[in-house]
Amino acid sequence: MSEGDFGLHAFAWGLLLFCTAILLLQIVPKLIDLSRVFLDWWSFRVGEHDLQRNSSSRSDAYRRLLSSRSGRIVYVLIIFVISVGLGKVSLMLALFFAAAGFCLPMALRIRRKLTHRLTMEQALPEAMTRLATLLSAGQPLHQAIVDLPERVNPVLAPCFSQLRADLKIGIGLSDALTRQERRLELDEFVAFASCVRVGLLSGGTLSPSIERLAGDMRKRINLRMKLRVLTVQARGQAWIMAALPALILLALSIVDPSGFQFLVQTTAGRTALSIAISMNLTGALWVRRLSQSKWV
What we know:
By secondary structure, the protein is mainly alpha-helical. Helix content is about 85%, strand content about 0%.
């Protein structure tokens, strides 16, 4: 190997290590969350009521299939049989189908959680407005919170019902709010609980403060929605960039098997393939990160 080839080879591997380090820093937290979701799904700890709550008519059959242990076993067997059949045509196609089949339930579960969280964020300002109205009418804070579950959006009713149950068994309001913060892990509820605590400590009127906080939350939610609309092209581009290597490899394994074998069986092919995939995924994550904002 000449000195020029050695330098080029070292540069390629250095670039690969750099891209891999960036990828690990970006995706390790997401991989940990995905592993928790996968273990939760695989160990059959998700109950039927958890998956079928607030389900749409178009996905009822799929949710019912995944909500029972026997349904999940049947689903895994179907994915396995189809993957074995596709393996006779193309190994890459079989691996791609198996990965997509096992990732689909996790993706649906994550999407359901995100949708539920977004619904709670949008319903919380209205619940705070109703609480401020009860306080303005002269009700004490504890009594207003006890009456709140029947007056709020159904998606927030369990949250305030748990808060009411904590108050009825003798837990202080500040401690009950802290317990509910840990259950929800919702930034907007943390802000609401902090506002109530400050009002309890200062002894002032809570109604104007809660009204202002609800208005600020509405403005923040509207700004977040506008940001998502303005960055939809960048986020779509990031998804396309992330899926492009797998799709190209899949097409190459079918159209040009010899070229695919060169990429996966030779040292030069594996090096080029690793660098291309790493740089592509790094670019996709970078574009997605730029389209997000920590201020809204």
